[in-house]
Amino acid sequence: MTLRSYKGHLPKVCINTYVDESAVLIGDISIGHDSSIWPLVAARGDVNYIKIGDRTNVQDGAILHVTRPTPDNSAGYPLIIGDDVTIGHQAMLHGCHLGNRILVGMSAIIMDNVTVEDDVIIGGGSLVPPGKTLKSGFLYVGSPVKQARALTQDEIDFLLVSANNYVKLKDEYLLED
């Protein structure tokens, strides 16, 4: 894996976390237990920090970045991703806050200052514009994203199934190394 320091910050990765050798992690990044970072992920914690929780998977080609502090926004926008989150292939997350048990569909884009509450599914190809809050328990789709409907209990249960499937898969990959 490629872990690169930036201004004295080296990414911190738990020992039981899988980071593919083609992924690039730069700067102030922390990744929790049983998480996985898959091929060609680019995560840049250079002008702010990235925090990824436990049992979270970031799939192939995803891009993770942050927004620097400014005079109008002294904290900037870090990227905070909770526990049991599945981030689909080629998703782009920028300076947003994701809660727990979320599925971000393939090629979805989530912009600055977005808050995604727990137990949410964001459809593939969706665009979540800056400053939006996605409420818990719903499916969101479209560009710009709109609340489509309440999640079924099966869909809510699937959020943990998805996260746990990736924990098993990363364990298999770790055995190969």
From TrEMBL:
<dbReference type="InterPro" id="IPR047324">
    <property type="entry name" value="LbH_gamma_CA-like"/>
</dbReference>
<protein>
    <submittedName>
        <fullName>Gamma carbonic anhydrase family protein</fullName>
    </submittedName>
</protein>
<dbReference type="InterPro" id="IPR050484">
    <property type="entry name" value="Transf_Hexapept/Carb_Anhydrase"/>
</dbReference>
<dbReference type="InterPro" id="IPR011004">
    <property type="entry name" value="Trimer_LpxA-like_sf"/>
</dbReference>
